Backbone:
């Protein structure tokens, strides 16, 4: 099921409590207002944290930044016309410039994201919300889960 979400206007935050080494994944798929999915982001909690960004990376790559030590993590995904940034608990862990990635990356990610979907392989995401400062209610994949403000 797709969820209406304007990523270009509002960064999204996803809560996880997965440990590195758990083999769980965050898998978010991105859609334009109409039509098929054009992009996805995967965070894989293997023995090292890895990421994959459809049309931008050839395969999974390690996140080399030092992650915060807290088990509960809030991942913030910010998309602009030129890049995609990922923060973990307020610490930037990736800044992917579309122009420096795979040749189709900039064209693919220039599309407006209007809908998202959490793939069934996503076992790490506990909930999501619009970045704080908005009047959007917290949404969780399981109604018993939520992000703390």
Residues:
């Amino acid at each position: 099921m797709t969820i209406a979400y304007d990523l270009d206007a509002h960064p999204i935050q996803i809560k996880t409590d997965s440990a590195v080494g758990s083999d769980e994944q965050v898998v978010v798929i991105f859609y334009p207002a109409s039509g098929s999915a054009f992009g996805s982001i995967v965070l894989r909690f293997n023995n090292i944290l890895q990421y994959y960004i459809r049309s931008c990376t050839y395969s999974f790559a390690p996140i080399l930044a030092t992650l915060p030590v807290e088990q509960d993590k809030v991942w913030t995904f910010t998309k602009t016309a030129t890049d995609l940034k990922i923060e973990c608990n307020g610490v930037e862990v990736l800044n992917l410039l579309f122009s420096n990635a795979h040749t189709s990356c900039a064209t693919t990610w220039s599309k407006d994201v209007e809908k998202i979907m959490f793939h069934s392989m996503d076992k790490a995401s506990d909930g999501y919300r619009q970045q704080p400062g908005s009047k959007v209610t917290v949404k969780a994949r399981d109604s018993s889960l939520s992000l703390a403000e």
